[in-house]
Every structure is written in C-alpha cells, then in structure tokens.
Design a protein that fits this description.
alpha+beta; Rossmann fold; about 40% helix; about 15% strand
C-alpha cells in the first residue's frame, strides 16, 4: 500500500502512517523515528503516543540531495539490503562545502553482499526527487516550526561530509542533551 505512493514521490496518507508508527513503537521505551512525523497532523498524533526528547535535523541543499539520491543503487535481490551510491560530490553551495564520496561496490554494479546486479529505485530519478522535495517543503517544514514552538531541543547538522563524520557530529550534539550518556 505504501509503495504506490512512494513510486509517485508522494507521502502516504497520515492515517496509514500514524497507524504503522503506533504499532511499531507500542510497548517501546527508547527508539529513533526516521522520517516521521512528516506533517503537523502526524506530530499531533505522535504526542498522544510518546514524548519527543530531541529532534535531529539534517540540512542539505536541494541540488546535492537530487544528485546524491539519483545516484543511489540498491541490490536487485529483495532479500538483500545492499545499498550503494555512485555520486562523488565535491562542491560549494551557499557557503557550504560538500565532500561526499561515492559508496561503490567492489565490482561495477554488482552487490558485494550477494552478487546480484544493482538497480536504481523507480523513485530515485530527478523528477520524482524534485516532487518529493516540494511535498517536503509544503508538509514537513511546518513540523519543524511546530516543534520549535513547543521548545523541543534540536540537534542540527549539515549533511556535507561522509556519513561517519555527520554521525559523529550528531552524537556530540545528543550528548549535550543527555549528560554524556551516549
């Protein structure tokens, strides 16, 4: 059900996503949500399910997102989670330097994990990515303001370096809110 929306670059209806998340976090005390909530309605529903301790906000210019996402390659074997990226990005945009190396397989377009061919997801083409970004701006940007007004703390970083460097910055930011327990 979710896949048909993703292929068109659209977000799933709030009711579907809210119920998926409700079931996923039921009975859990500690967890990280990625990509939820994406609308104010979802944020309001989440308040009835749990308390939000901190929000991690990862910033990136649209041009970089389009280039990086359209270069994603995944394993064609549905049982495998092989995930790669062929983009090698080194540029400045808006005063931010981006150094994002590719994540290549050892053999060209062959998954390191299972040996299956790599493919591009149907929704990882520039036209669909641009639509996803427009939907994000309309529906998700208000969520950021919603939580800022509520006083929820943010850890904000730029996705302008390799993942391990960005993760390190996120962990440093989280430590400030959790008394270095991370």
């Amino acid at each position: 059900m979710v896949e048909k929306y993703m292929e068109r670059g659209e977000l799933c209806p709030d009711e579907i996503v809210i119920e998926i998340v409700r079931q996923a976090i039921k009975g859990k005390e500690h967890f990280i949500l990625d990509g939820f909530p994406r609308s104010v309605k979802q944020a309001e529903a989440l308040e009835g399910m749990t308390k939000i301790d901190t929000i991690i906000l990862i910033n990136c210019h649209d041009e970089i997102l389009i280039e990086k996402i359209s270069a994603r390659r995944i394993c064609s074997n549905p049982q495998c989670d092989g995930n790669y990226n062929v983009a090698d990005i080194h540029k400045f945009i808006g005063g931010i330097e981006y150094k994002l190396p590719p994540l290549l397989p050892k053999r060209d377009m062959i998954c390191d994990k299972c040996g299956s061919p790599l493919i591009q997801r149907k929704d990882d083409v520039p036209e669909v990515i641009k639509e996803r970004l427009e939907v994000y701006k309309k529906q998700s940007m208000p969520v950021i303001e919603y939580y800022r007004k509520k006083g929820v703390p943010f850890v904000e970083v730029w996705m302008n370096r390799p993942v391990d460097v960005v993760v390190e910055k996120i962990v440093e930011g989280l430590k400030k809110f959790f008394d270095n327990k991370i």
